[in-house]
Each structure stands twice: as C-alpha cells, then as structure tokens.
Amino acid sequence: MLPHYSSKQGELGTFFFYRCKIPHVSIGPEVAPSAERQEHNWLPLVVAAAVILSIAAVVILSLEHKNALGKGTAMVAPITAPLDPYAGNLPLTSLAMSESGNLTGGKVTYLDGHIANQGSRTVTAVTVQVLFHDFAHEVTQNETQPLKLIRMRSPYIDVEPVSAAPLKPGDEQDFRLIFDTVSPNWDGAYPEIRILHVEMK
C-alpha cells in the first residue's frame, strides 16, 4: 500500500524538486592557460643546441684532420723505438722540403721524397717517425704518421695511403709528409725519418 501524502507535503516536494537543482559540481577555479605559460622560454634550448653543435664541429674537425694524415697521428713513439725489420728494404731518397700558407694565415710544411721496395713482399702501409733537431742536435719535434704516396701532381699535389696503391717488390713511388706546425727551434736541416712499422701481404 502506497504511503499517503498530504497536499501540503506534495507542494513541498514539488518545490524542492524544481528549486533545488544542483548546478555543475566544480572542483576548483577553472584554469585557463595564461599567455605567459604559452610563450616558451627558448633561450636555454638555443644555448644548449649551440653548445652541442660546437662540440660536434670540434670532434668532426679533429677526425677529419686525423683522417687527412692517417691513423696514428696522435701517437708519439719514443726516439729509441726500434725500426721495423723490413725497413732496410725501403730506402727513402730524394728528400725535398717546401712550405705553403693555409686559410688560417699559418703555414704548412711538406717533406717530399722517394721510396722503393727492394724486398720480396708487397707493402700495404708504412708508418714513419720524423725527428726534427735543433742547433744543439737535440730532438725538438717528434712526430709519427703514416707515409702517404703522391697520387697526382697536376693541377695540384694529391696524396693517398699506401694501401690504395700497394708497393710490390721492385716498385718505386714518390711520397709526401705534411706538418701543420714545425718547432721554432728547428735548425732548418732535413729531419730524420725512421720507418717504425710496415704492413705487408
């Protein structure tokens, strides 16, 4: 049996039904993105990108310089390092030195010469030690670098590693060594060239 409501109770119920509507429940003030938040501060990002690009440029230039001279340019062998057993079969003759300016205003020193393979093996790489002396006959500069063969002379001199044109028994070829800097204490005489390592097949 349904409960009985008086007319007064009905009116009161109708009042609450129509008047007590609950509006949207709000969990707080509506957050609208401000103009300041929309504008990003790009300065730290730009600075970080510039630093990364600078470091990458330095690394790339270092690698290119190392590749230009060949592997091992950073290695400095002691002046008492033993010669390669095959070195006696690879006489270095007709030495000549020259200089030229570079784009940075400095100068590059070249040491040209002639190498002959008088042995019985095919040579694929030669690493040499170059010792510059001062007027007291002390070593003032010690560099170790791979020997590069002169590939062509015109319209400019271009070099390549020995591995690109291996020296077979009886072969002869001109070579060039390149020095970005030379010690100011150098006496001006031809440096000493020592063959420390030979790769063969």
Structure in words:
This protein has a five-stranded antiparallel β-sheet with strand order 1-2-7-5-6, with no helix packed on it. Strands 4-3-8 form a three-stranded antiparallel β-sheet, with no helix packed on it. It has a domain at 87-200: Immunoglobulin-like. The protein is an alpha+beta fold and 201 residues long. Helices cover 22% and strands 32% of the residues. The termini are far apart.
SS summary, helix count: 3
Low-confidence stretches: 5-18, 62-74
In terms of quaternary structure, the protein is single chain
Strand order of the largest sheet: 1-2-7-5-6
Instruction: Please tell me how large the radius of gyration is.
Output: 40 Å
Q: Any idea of the CATH topology of the domain at 87-200?
A: Immunoglobulin-like
Q: Class of the domain at 87-200 in CATH?
A: Mainly Beta
Count all strands and give the number: 8
Mean pLDDT: 80
| Major beta sheet summary | 5 strands, antiparallel
Helix fraction bin: 10-25%
How many angstroms does the end-to-end distance come to? 112 Å
Proportion of strand residues: 25-35%
Q: Rough shape?
A: extended
Q: Quickly give the structural class.
A: alpha+beta
In N-to-C order, the SSE pattern is: HHHEEEEEEEE
What is the annotated CATH architecture of the domain at 87-200?
Sandwich
Task: Provide the descriptors you would attach to this structure in a database record.
Immunoglobulin-like, extended, 3 helices, single chain, five-stranded antiparallel sheet, alpha+beta, 8 strands, 201 residues, three-stranded antiparallel sheet
